[in-house]
Write a structure and sequence with these properties.
Largest sheet: 8 strands, antiparallel
CATH architecture: Sandwich
CATH class: Mainly Beta
Bound molecules: manganese (II) ion
CATH topology: Jelly Rolls
CATH superfamily: Jelly Rolls
Shape: globular
Distance between the termini: 28 Å
Strand content: over 45%
Structural class: mainly beta
Number of helices: 1
Number of domains: 1
Length: about 325
């Protein structure tokens, strides 16, 4: 998925200053953003009060949308730099094409993991014949300086490992939970896990005290550390926890996102993560004119053009609130 915001303003993210060292319960409300003609998403990261959770730098939740008589998701070819994209579905499917020649249909609870490294481009669309409902999340993981220029690659994992407890099934998307690890390639200490809770479940999830965490609510009615979370909201949990109490009144779907606080400052603009305004401007120019980001073949429509880069230099780094 792409950041289609036409008023894209560069934002400085990362760095210790944003991290809350102790356990907190900070409920983040989403911003509603339209993606093209047909899809509206709820954007949880970056958020007014919070830019990152570990290396997780971007979180969109969308659906469930009834697309029986609609084209569904239609995100034209666009570039990425300095990040990984994670596609995670609860219902429906997304057809992924990229400039490496990948052509994959990502289905519910399969991992589509695209590492942009220095440069890649891709498109995402609902296949012409698609399921009635589309429900999922699109996330970005920032790459650390040591790895942000790696060769681009795409991974599709259809059989991810799970951890079970009474009333809880956790599917490992990235990183490790309770000794079980996802096969997805990671570049920083991080975790992403899908949490399926059965009605009436009460569970305690083991956490790493050095990680910061958040939980995205996708469906149902659940409480995270005693806080009711509605679908489309995200609870930031800070650091310093060894476990996380969960309960569910109905069947509920959550995503646990966590990682070591991302200490490097970085600049996010449009679909790029860099370290300077010059680097971002170069990436924008390269998408418009060059072949650095490659070509996506087979998408029915023109690629996205980048919005204007504001002439004003980057805003000084803001406070968390
Ligand atoms: Mn994208």
């Amino acid at each position: 998925m792409s950041n289609l915001d036409r008023q894209a303003v560069p934002a400085v993210c990362g760095g210790r200053g944003f991290v809350v060292a102790e356990p907190v319960r900070e409920l983040l409300t989403p911003r509603h953003v339209r993606l093209g003609e047909s899809t509206e998403v709820r954007r949880l990261l970056p958020n007014l009060g919070r830019r990152m959770v570990g290396a997780w730098a971007f979180v969109d939740h969308y659906g469930p949308d009834d697309i029986a008589d609609e084209p569904g998701m239609q995100v034209p070819p666009h570039p990425h730099m300095g990040l990984q994209t994670v596609s995670w579905l609860h219902e429906g499917e997304v057809l992924h094409r990229d400039s490496l020649g990948s052509l994959r249909t990502i289905r519910a609870r399969e991992l589509g993991l695209m590492t942009s490294g220095r440069a890649i481009s891709h498109s995402e669309e609902s296949p012409r014949a698609h399921a009635r409902f589309l429900h999922g999340a699109q996330l970005w993981v920032a790459l650390p300086d040591a790895h942000r220029r790696v060769e681009p690659h795409f991974q599709h994992h259809t059989d991810l490992p799970t951890v079970s407890a009474p009333g809880l099934t956790a599917t490992l998307i990235l990183g490790e939970l309770d000794g079980t690890a996802s096969p997805g390639t990671t570049y920083t200490p991080i975790v992403g896990a899908d949490l399926a809770l059965a009605a009436g479940a009460e569970a305690r999830l083991p956490l790493e005290p050095d990680f910061e965490y958040a939980v995205l609510a996708m469906s149902g009615s659940a409480e995270v550390d005693g806080v009711p979370v509605l679908p489309g909201s995200m609870l930031y949990l800070g650091c310093g926890r060894t476990e996380l109490p969960l309960r569910a009144d109905s069947d509920a779907g959550l995503m646990l996102l966590g990682g070591e606080p991302f200490e490097e400052e970085l600049i996010m603009w449009w679909n790029f993560i860099g370290r300077s305004q010059e680097e971002i401007a170069q990436a924008r120019a390269d998408w418009a004119t060059g072949d650095r980001f490659g070509t996506v073949h087979g998408y029915d429509g023109p690629p996205l053009s980048a919005p204007e880069l504001p002439a004003t230099p980057l805003k000084a780094r803001g406070r968390v609130r």
